[in-house]
Amino acid sequence: MSNTSTKGIWKVITASSLGTLIEWYDFYIFGSLAVVISTKFFPSDNPTAAFLSTLATFAAGFVVRPFGALFFGRLGDIIGRKYTFMVTLLLMGGATFLIGCIPSYESIGFLAPLAVLILRLLQGLALGGEYGGAATYVAEHAPKGQRGYWTSWIQTTATFGLFISLMVILLTRAVLSPEEFDQWGWRVPFWISILMVLVSYVIRQKMHESPEFAKAKAEGKTSANPLKESFGNKYNLKFVLLALFGAAMGQGVVWYTGQFYAMSFLKTVMFIDSSQVDGLLGIALLFGTPFFVVFGWLSDKVGRKMVMMTGMLLAILLYRPIYDKMYNTTNIEHKTEITGQTISEATVKENKPGVSDSIYTTTKAYTDGTMWKQVKTIKLENGNPVMEGGIVKSDTKTIITINETDKWTLIFLVFIQVIFVTMVYGPIAAFLVEMFPVKIRYTSMSLPYHVGNGIFGGLLPAISTYLATNAKENGDTAFYLEGLWYPIIIAGISFVIGMVYLRTKNTVNHD
Q1: How far apart are the C-alpha atoms of 78 and 223, rounded to whole Å?
Q2: What is the pTM of this model?
């Protein structure tokens, strides 16, 4: 590969990756702020229900991704890769910015969650068209035999997008006071998106159409009806289904377990301070991200199947031991309390005349440096507790601040999960591109990817959180592991199908 062609492919990678990274940032800023958003756009009288509603809204963006894949995939195979993913970039950026402008539930009632849901659906449609276009565009510029390596750079953008979202949140929290962040500062990461989108749009305007698509279009070999040729043709449909159930489905649940469920688990099951979680997750992602390229390159040498199936198998076997270790690392039942340092405080906060909160705060210190804090809030009207179903209406929040040793233990355990992610996700773009011919590639590869990631993967945080919550309510002492059955079973099915039906050396490659 000459220096000139290397320079050319790097321009393609940079332009494509920057836009895709921004779209992932936009898409995941919602999940990164899920705990805060649940208090802004949903009724605050039931925090658990509000958080589950937020996760459901988060998942809704994933559910519509396959529809975005069909709509924009068709456009991409008819008018071209470049113009299609410029449209998706603007749609994503506009929806993200507007989410940051929606008034709270207290201001406009049910219109707040409705507006969030609509904009979240638009985000999902945009991302459904973005990824397939970017991956196809890069793959069609890459030299034969090196697609795994070059497309793996696109694969890093999803994790970098999440990483940047966490860093922007941390920076915003550092600049503002806790009260300012809670009141309006959480909106800043959404507003910042519009500037990033405009910069990326200008860069993408200067890009040329992919050479393979341009050649096919010049020769009159593009498809007049990509949807019919992709899914109405039994031969091609067989590969679409194999791509979905033999790879993308398992890859989707491994991706979201290692990054989003890990974050949700640390915050809502282990009760670790939100800023500490964002920081340790960011470090694990930073260390793990280069391995997307490593495993993309390796898949060029030993085949996509070998790398992806190994990642799935490791995840299936190790998830429960990893999460058991994570939970027990900070479990205060295994720590020694410094009894003389326990502090209890009671305050009253008046919200409006006759309505106030009675707040009881208890703080405990442990010999290893761990701090435990519990805040119980009881609603009062005219000085009397508000009753609901014969029970005093209250809200209890627990926050654990971990020590340095525990922090690095958790970073390592999350890092291992990120390695599983890089193994299954690094080669997936090249794998999908090589399964389908140029004229229907955008459409054919986008659907299995977004069903696998959008449906099977995107529903994971909500389903797994529900399973863990339900097990806890039923008195299961190992409730914190129950949410893992979903990714383990889905990845297990995908592993079996992939091992039996996928070819050993790369894939079909119709080219």
Answers
A1: 7
A2: 0.81
